[in-house]
Amino acid sequence: MMMALKLLSASILGPSVAQLRAVIHEKYPFTDLLDSWEITMIIDEQYENHVEVSVVHSRLVKAVITEINETFEFEWTVTILWSSSPFDIMLGSFMREKDTYKVALNITRLSFGEETRLKFKREARDFLSQFVDTKNSYRLVWDRHLKVQPVHKDINRLSEKIKIIHEKEGVLYDKTGKEETPGHLAVHEILSLLAKHTGNTTLQDFLRDEFLKIIKPDGDLSEQLYKLFKRG
What we know:
Number of helices: 7
Number of domains: 1
Radius of gyration: 19 Å
Oligomer: single chain
Shape: elongated
Number of strands: 8
Distance between the termini: 12 Å
Helix content: 25-40%
Order of helices and strands: HEEEEHEHEHEEHHH
């Protein structure tokens, strides 16, 4: 579960965003809207000792219909899905030797200006529909173990954007609009929630007894976390 922080890394999103740009940007040039990136972790306890966790990255962008020089907005999402099996939980390990993840890239929201003609709305919808069908969109977008992936360099800021939602219990973590929490404490709280709701008692013990002794508040949080993960 500590590896969940690696799923916030921009390098994980890179292949999906590159695909989005390769397919869409030439026809509909687009730019990211400022401060629109959101991250949601969803914990689903499907049955006893089996937990499925999704990390959903979303961002709103503004695109241009060049023929008429009008803009429209769409939201893309990258969903990273993985599971904790009963065997993993019994071992109490922080990470698995061989991790496999499913990644889906989709467009989930589309909005046009009131003056945009129906013809151009229909063309844009038809063109973007290839990213709307989720049935066949899962794909492996990286082949390196998460252990060698970096931790996002601005993990302090991202901790304020993350929401953690439990399928049965609702929102577990949401710091939106609240007083800023020091980065190392926010990370500790996030990992503690994930450990608790995935039944990882070894990680819970580590977070209670060791984490705050190892991670120093005055150091580079991302670098400290990367070294911790690398150590295993």
